[in-house]
Amino acid sequence: MDWQTIAASLFPQGHSITEQACFLSGHGQLDGQQIAVIGTTGHTPIGVEIALAQAQAILRTVREHPGMPILMLIDTQGQRLRHRDEMLGINSYMAHLGKCVDLARRQGHHIIGLVYDQALSGGFITSGLMADACYALPDATIRVMGLPAMARITKVPEERLLELAQSNPVFAPGPENYQRMGGVEALWQGDLAAQLRAALAQPLTGDTRSALGLERGGRRWAQAVINAVLHGGPVQAG
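RESULT FIELD:
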């Protein structure tokens, strides 16, 4: 789905979101409240330019609009794989973007992520997974690594990974599996403005992804390891 349709559904009262070289920025109106919107479109890879543009937009919001909610619209094929970006230190740009998101959170900005099309690897980690809560549309594509690439890296046959993906969401792409693992809070369907309104009304309780993953049966060990580190004692899976 194109970002214009998504924006119109999220902000029926109007918005000023614009696109420049696959980078989205602007504001939306919801119940008379302004919401800063920062995102990407066109399955664009996150290179140094877009990472820096997103970071600048977040810092500008913190400086000029204290406490304004921030919505991150996500559609990316992941980190740009170019020699130029690697030589320029793309890892540092991505880390800087993540730090800016965290700064905004510490300054009282409620940050919501919405995967409306595609979210892959590093481009997702420093956007939706850095938000207070990340949501997705049912038809979105979410994965950290495709199974063929995972097979090459892990040396596990792709057929075995396909078999594991049937029962273990860690190996399987898709928003439903990320919801089971707690990485996606919920899938948005129907009235997107109502969904955004409800998400902004949720109290901020810190990072609950591991607890959600345990509750939903998608990650049985993450919360157990956290509890063991915090409180001592053996690791006991839920």
